[in-house]
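User: Hey, quick favor. My workstation is busy. Could you predict this chain's structure for me?
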Amino acid sequence: MRITGRTAVITGGAKGIGAVTARLFCEQGAQVAIIDMDEKAGDELARQLHAEGNDIAFFQADVTDELQVGRTAEAILQQFGKVDILVNNAGITMDAMTLKMETETFRKVLDVNVTGIFNCTKAFIGGMAEAEYGRIISTSSIAGTGGNVGQANYAASKAAVVGLTRTWAKEFGPKGVTANAVAPGFIETEMIHTIPEKVAAQIRQLTPSPRLGTPEDVANAYLFLASEEAGFVNGTVLEVDGGMLK
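Assistant: No problem, here it is.
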């Protein structure tokens, strides 16, 4: 198992890609702490995986709230003793064309998708640096590298993730901590189901690999970057998009 003995924190881990990642990391030998706002889904996933013999716990917190994140980090460290891997997976979309987008909508998406990642990384990096080992994996998007109509806030936030990742690679690399990002393309999640089927069909046609991605595709990318095999991978953005932007 590729991450046996490691402790991983997964934000936005109660549903979708985060939940699939939590299960995969458990299967690969890690202790897992899930952070999410959705208490019902988080508790249910943790109970299910715990019943299967995994060491997992759910913690409810708003990643945009620095104090909540700090208290949650303390609770996780008290329960597990350490954190080796942080997957900054939590994120939201609030789409609108720029001329119709409210400033508050723009700010909200950046607060979750950028400030949330900053808060969580800041909360756990001290312990990683002290241990001289760590993996920080943050979720960007092909919207952050190529833009997307109607997603000025989301694209800006995901471009910022790339900047944070490459900065942290330089800041934390000398301390034994790598920082990388994953940029998913169009993935089969609840979010994609809001797109009309005609549009989804066009997306498939634009993707050299003629299908939408799956949460497992993204979770496997997280797993690689969390593993020992990725020890010399630092400051990179791994695109999981079927070749769409190549």
